[in-house]
Specification:
There is one protein chain. This protein is α+β, with helices and mostly antiparallel strands and about 120 residues long. It is built from two helices and six strands; from the N terminus they run βββαβαββ. Helix 1 packs across helix 2. The two termini are about 15 Å apart. The relative contact order is 0.25.
Length: about 120
């Protein structure tokens, strides 16, 4: 099975030796997206940061031929679990019912000291 790297100017460039996304065997896997704008500005306020991270995920998905409707699994990494409700409020606006399966974990630190990082897995069929 050949893997195809996904790249888009609609999301921040990778900060290290990884792809924004990988398409393989009918699946599209996004790398974790932090709330960086495409011009490199970090979005700080948790609601706006969640929205930006999800917009970045959406851009990677689109570049790989998928949409938010194709997402079956999401992982959310939070710097502070106290932000859980605020993240959920924004997150819910990005997915239709039934929403994808999801895990949400608090972590000690994220790249560039981001407040949130979100990755997704989409089924391409």
């Amino acid at each position: 099975m050949a893997a195809e790297a996904i790249r888009t100017a609609g999301a921040p460039a990778a900060l290290g030796p990884y792809s924004q996304g990988i398409k393989a065997g009918g699946w599209l896997f996004t790398s974790g997206q932090i709330p960086l704008t495409s011009d490199g500005r970090m979005v700080v306020e948790i609601g706006a940061a969640t929205r930006q991270a999800l917009e970045n995920v959406r851009a990677v998905l689109a570049a790989g031929g998928a949409s938010m409707k194709d997402v079956v699994r999401v992982t959310v990494y939070l710097r502070d679990m106290a932000d859980f409700a605020a993240v959920n409020e924004i997150y819910a606006t990005f997915f239709e019912v039934p929403p994808p399966a999801r895990s949400c974990v608090e972590v000690a630190r994220l790249p560039k000291d981001a407040a949130v990082e979100i990755e997704a897995v989409a089924w391409l069929g």
